[in-house]
Design goal:
This protein is mostly helical.
């Protein structure tokens, strides 16, 4: 892992966009910075507890309660907005791969150099993902249900096949979904032959074999296999954006592909339910469709139409995603809240308990954002 002030903008998003903004490095694919930054901004918002406070402070069944529930994972079958956050991030990593490879090749790195870097990065992601959840009371548990650990697999697979043909990569991604369907429906394990029932499916059985099952949340490590499709599709989208096609055709193809995946996912949902917690094939198809559509719209409005003035707010978070995620995850949000709490109590106490909690969490959220802004202005970027 490294922190670098020099060569600050050579990383996973390289320069292909058009136009400038005074606060942004010229030539970056700003839509990707925005997309990644918006996702990370939402993630650090979760660590402040704001979404939970908002949900619990509204009456169940009301419009606001229904709206705020979108910032929580669906309990089982169905799809909330929050269920798209991890697919967004895994897709974004895939989009960045062609740009990163092109940048490194331009600096004279060989294929061997690229592979060594990719394997090291995958190992770091795996170790960091495992470390975040390994400590349980009285014992150490290997658990790989979190986004970093799963990303280590999806990133490496997508990287290794990045230069293969479009058809090959699509075939691999759909093959992963087919394998998932077969294993969940046909794997012969007594008591675990209910593919879409919590804790009675192949994914839970697999985690029980190494002692890392999540029986309360129902998340499974095997999710890394089907969701690798997100990262592979991201690579294909990145290759498209790097191509010489006119911008309109790029957007059209992204929207068309997204629409096809959405239609397929929802059409097949009566056969295979959309379940985020075990990453069913229909969940992967549906969320992949949203991935492509959001990227298409971001690219069109930001990089093509030049609507960039507001992008810097999210872009600074997107340029230090690993740091701010780890910082918030290991207690950084709680630490910042502990510092501010005496002052926010004085400032916001008159609003009542709920009002104070909401305003305090919002203050912490924007303080975490300010850390990424401070780092950006000093060209400090934490990467692996």
């Amino acid at each position: 892992m490294l922190s670098s002030k020099a060569r600050a903008f050579d990383s996973d998003t390289i320069m292909t966009g058009q136009g400038k903004h005074d606060d942004l490095p010229p030539g970056r694919l700003l839509s990707l910075d925005f997309f990644r930054g918006a996702v990370m901004f939402l993630l650090i918002g979760e660590f402040t507890g704001l979404f939970s406070v908002l949900t619990h402070s509204t009456e169940e069944g009301s419009f606001l309660h229904t709206l705020f529930m979108q910032f929580h994972h669906q309990r089982w079958e169905g799809l909330h907005f929050w269920d798209l956050v991890q697919p967004f991030f895994m897709f974004i990593v895939g989009v960045a791969i062609p740009f990163s490879v092109a940048s490194r090749r331009a600096r004279g790195q060989s294929e061997r150099d690229l592979r060594v870097h990719a394997f090291k990065r995958a190992l770091w992601l795996l170790l960091l993902g495992w470390a975040l959840y390994c400590i349980n009371p009285g014992r150490i548990t290997f658990r790989f249900q979190n986004v970093l650990a799963q990303l280590s697999f999806t990133y490496l697979l997508a990287f290794l096949i990045r230069d293969k043909s479009f058809r090959f990569q699509v075939a691999i991604s759909l093959g992963l979904l087919l394998v998932t369907e077969i294993l969940y429906r046909a794997f012969p394990v007594e008591g675990f032959n209910h593919p879409f029932v919590p804790n009675e499916n192949f994914g839970t059985w697999l985690d029980l074999q190494y002692g890392g099952a999540d029986l309360r949340g129902h998340w499974v490590s095997f999710n890394a296999v089907p969701t690798a499709a997100h990262t592979i599709w991201g690579v294909l989208a990145g290759r498209l954006l790097l191509s010489d096609l006119p911008a309109r055709k790029k957007v059209y193809r992204l929207l068309l592909a997204g629409g096809v995946l959405l239609a397929a996912g929802y059409a097949l949902s009566p056969v295979t339910p959309i379940i985020k917690r075990i990453a069913t094939s229909t969940f992967v198809l549906t969320s992949g469709g949203y991935d492509l559509i959001v990227l298409a719209l971001s690219y069109w409005f930001i990089d093509v139409k030049g609507s960039k003035r507001w992008v810097i707010f999210f872009a600074v978070v997107g340029m230090n995603p690993l740091f701010i995620y780890l910082f918030a995850h290991v207690g950084g949000a709680d630490f910042v809240e502990h510092i501010f709490q005496p002052f926010t109590h004085v400032l916001y106490g008159w609003t009542g308990d709920n009002g104070e909690r909401i305003l305090t969490a919002t203050t912490v959220w924007f303080s975490l954002w300010y850390i990424t802004w401070w780092m950006y202005k000093r060209k400090i970027f934490i990467r692996i």
